[in-house]
Amino acid sequence: MEPDLTLKKQVVVIGAGFGGLSFIKALDDSSSQITLIDTHNYHTFSPLLYQVASAGLTAESIAHPARAAIRKSGATFLLDTVIDIEPDHNRVLLGSGERINYDTLVVAAGSVTADFGVKGAKEHTLGMKTIDEALLIRSKVMRALEDASRYGHHAVPIVIVGGGPTGVELAGALAELSKVLHKDFPELGPSALKVTLVEAGDRLLPMFPDSLSAVAKRDLIRRGVEVLTQGQVAEVTAKDVSLKGGRLLESNLTVWTAGVKGNSLGDILARHLGVSARRDGRIEVDGHCRPTGTSYPNIFVVGDLAARNEKGTILPMVAPVAMQMGRHVAALLKDPDHPELKYRDKGSMATIGRSDAVVWVGKIRISGLIAWLAWLGLHLAYLLGGRNRLQVVIDWGWNYLTYDRTARQILR
Amino acid sequence: MEPDLTLKKQVVVIGAGFGGLSFIKALDDSSSQITLIDTHNYHTFSPLLYQVASAGLTAESIAHPARAAIRKSGATFLLDTVIDIEPDHNRVLLGSGERINYDTLVVAAGSVTADFGVKGAKEHTLGMKTIDEALLIRSKVMRALEDASRYGHHAVPIVIVGGGPTGVELAGALAELSKVLHKDFPELGPSALKVTLVEAGDRLLPMFPDSLSAVAKRDLIRRGVEVLTQGQVAEVTAKDVSLKGGRLLESNLTVWTAGVKGNSLGDILARHLGVSARRDGRIEVDGHCRPTGTSYPNIFVVGDLAARNEKGTILPMVAPVAMQMGRHVAALLKDPDHPELKYRDKGSMATIGRSDAVVWVGKIRISGLIAWLAWLGLHLAYLLGGRNRLQVVIDWGWNYLTYDRTARQILR
What we know:
Two copies of one chain form a homodimer.
Chain A lengths: L8 E6 L3 H10 L4 E7 L3 E3 L4 H5 L9 E3 H5 L5 E4 L2 E5 L4 E4 L4 E3 L2 E4 L3 E3 L7 H4 L6 H20 L5 E6 L3 H16 L12 E6 L11 H13 L3 E3 L4 E4 L3 E4 L4 E3 L2 E4 L3 E3 L2 H9 L9 E3 L13 E3 L4 E5 L2 E2 L4 H16 L13 E6 L2 E6 L2 E5 H14 L3 H17 L10
Parallel strand pairs in A: 1-2, 1-9, 2-5, 9-20, 11-12, 11-17, 12-13, 19-21
Antiparallel strand pairs in A: 3-4, 6-7, 7-8, 10-18, 14-15, 15-16, 21-22, 23-24, 24-25
């Protein structure tokens, strides 16, 4: 440590996700010394995890090194896990045993998969929140195809639970992978993966307008995905998924995208602050991303872990909210009179497959090729790192032109 | 299985390395049904493993899917491990319990790291023969840098045992990584990795002419590598490497590239054939790659596992020998009068770092930029898969122009 650091305001940021990095980038304040703590040495571009899981992109393409991301800010990076926050002592406790003091704390620890206690879900499903999980899904899919090719030549049944954007995008991508891999597994036919998408509600993409939900369903069915709405999962085993009502779905691999909840750090922080976290593990915050009903003005929560009620609606757990929250806290630290956060909804989009996506921005509702091109452009724009952007363009171009998926090596 | 397969000659190939794939590609015979068995679903381009270990390339770039590699041949692929060969029954036993019958068997199982029983080597060193090992080395290097940055700011000591091409290339690549990562770890200085290369003999690259060995040594030293020749390892612990004679080298990570031996399948096969494998685990073969002193004309051994004595010299364990052996066996199966294998030595090369390599082809001995360009071209030419070739060109170009290494995420 250089000696002058003690004169600087110590800002500790937990989490190198969209919220944490947006805060760091926006702060740009030479009187603060930022320390970023994350359990991984990279930022995960989670909107594209499903493409890693479906062999379209390598893990590295969507994982930007944390140190590269914060280089300009002069921030320090610590590869560690925060296991406790001590607001009365202005410090955090790390897995290594070390304690880090802060003047300002930004908790951007994100969310984890929520299985709502469904029997067998913890043991027999994979979430898709991390690079590790995405690589594991890819390896399990490829291994299941090898087994199917060898024993019996039947299609591999895969069940995806949850009809939100993640579930829809993974279902579409796996259905396409199935066709592409026909070259490798001709004996399995063009539908080597039998993908079933189960949604508890009565339509896919419940946050989208009805019309786009209907488009997503129609287009997934066209691609060979079985879509089950109003399908509530009763139990998951290693071999099948049983729905309430009695239907049994055979499943070699069950992916759980049906819910997320705040990282466990939310509960820990809430307890120390003397408030209770919401049932979904998130912490209620005010218009400046401070936990409501507490007296710790130097603690901010941003991103998925923060539940901000804006005009009666809780802001969703998506990247744009996290980024705007991160930037808001940075602006507030520079200007205490900065007005409250007003979330600017830039719309929602989900890709369904080759040349097909749904996009909803205010009154604009589009689907098909134009929506897909918009989806491509936006994801490229938000991807961190010029190298990763170049890489994803090359991979997408290659996959599009050759109907190939090159990242199908079993590495786990 | 289609019913007509029983009429075809069953050819079983063990191993999707250079030998096995060259055989399959060259056989191109519609009267044979080939089954390729490998423990991975990809071919590993082992000459570039050191670039995966040093964060220059992703694993996928040097791992070509096995099914794509054999697609044109109509061969069947089995993802499995061969645990026994039964020459008297013309069948192999797989890890899954299945037995596969063959009319012709090509054993191309390759080699594994040999630590010569040096104390602690098994527990405390990593080899560099597989993608898994290369990814593990990369993760350990990056994690060690994180620790060094956090605790004490000293350089990370890394010892590489073995001054052959693999050791020289890895040492040079890690020394360069060290400089490149200066941007991420400025507090560690430009020599964040303190690389020591230990060679038991009196010069590096013992298979090269003296003059090129001297160039390699000089250029590695210029890059900051400590080169210790006549350094025999007495013992390895988690913290250091002790040499005979008493010198103790601190080491956070010890990579063992000092020896290879035939895959254990060599011993198993030799026992069944009633011969003894050599001390290095390889099987002596005749000019047609048949095990010498046996009466099983339908069994061939090619690649690293085969020890062919040609005019008093055992052919080296390198990719060109494996490829020529594979092609030879294919030619022999098509023409029983095909003359014996005559190995055509196309020369040897090793890269030392940016714009620097040594190349030896007959009387030609070059080093520096021209040698490096030759090295680049040759490796690209031999890399399997158009996608991988494109990818490696892009990665090399990017790394060369930006002094960056983008594959530095800790994925293990």
